[in-house]
Write a structure and sequence with these properties.
Strand order of the largest sheet: 1-2-5-6
Helix content: under 10%
Number of strands: 10
Number of helices: 0
Distance between the termini: 27 Å
Length: about 90
Amino acid sequence: MAYDAFRRRVLMFGGGYGSSVAFGDTWEWDGVDWIQHSVSPSPSARWGHALAFDDRRGRVVLFGGFHAGELYADVWEWDGAAWEQILPD
């Protein structure tokens, strides 16, 4: 989870059930209600990733994680409406 200071919302990505089912859900909490966002593209389902808010650019950044024996080293950004994968130059 990460707090988006620009939009004043908490962003949660992922989750899971048991030891083998990972979710690729994107949820925001506005202080009252949870809102699920079903957007594409989106990061794949995973555990163990990190989320942080980049206040200079106004984006939540997701890095890495793992699922089903695969380790991820990808980077995604959430702008409040959509995910964008950030590819190295």
